[in-house]
Amino acid sequence: MKLAVLVGSLRKGSFNAALARALPALTPAGLGFETLPSVGLLPLYDADIQAAGFPEPVAALGRAIKAADGIVIVMPEYNYSVPGGLKNAIDWVSRLPDKPFAGKPVLIQTASISLLGGARAQYHLRQILVFLDAAVMNLPEVMVAQAQNKFDAASGELKDGPTRELIAKQLQSFAAFVRKTQAGAAVQA
Ligand code: FNR
């Protein structure tokens, strides 16, 4: 099973990028990870650009999402919502004719410096993914609150034991969710 990770922060020292890097070590056997290209490579969505042809970074992102068994979106919360760069990437991909997110199993994780850990942005992202007809897993949820205390300042390693355990449990559930979603799609086909 191959999962692709989409990171919603562009900054070098991002807690969310560090969270994405922690995933392979917390994953059940047989699960592979690839990191999708940065959402910062995409131009701002513009229907006139689309009319002239999808830019290659958009097409490449769509192909990678289509090819993956499941997508893990790891993002911060900006002003109680989804960061603009990630929303822009989702808007672009939503216009691709082969609808890469349709029926695709999606897992959401957030890390933020606040006490709520990005909870509000998670529910906005769920709403956005309804129209893309993605299959978003409900539980367990991972919201890494007070991220500044959960990662090693020097190495960026996720050092918080309970958070590591919760993520391992969530990834195990997601592997089962991907299998169940794929089996359901095969029956319908
Ligand atoms: C934030 N931050 C933030 N945090 C939060 O929990 N809720 C929020 O609504 C916001 N809003 C917000 C807006 C903007 C524009 C920025 C730049 C930041 C703080 C945020 O959690 C913090 O900067 C994280 O470190 C961002 O994630 P990365 O870049 O470390 O992955």
From TrEMBL:
The name this protein goes by in its record: NAD(P)H-dependent oxidoreductase
Molecular function terms, GO-annotated: FMN binding; oxidoreductase activity
Domain NADPH-dependent FMN reductase-like: 1-148
InterPro entries: Flavoprotein-like_sf, FMN_Rdtase-like_dom, NAD(P)H-dep_reductase
Pfam families xref list: FMN_red
Xref: PANTHER family: CHROMATE REDUCTASE, NAD(P)H-DEPENDENT FMN REDUCTASE LOT6
GO CC, alphabetical: cytosol
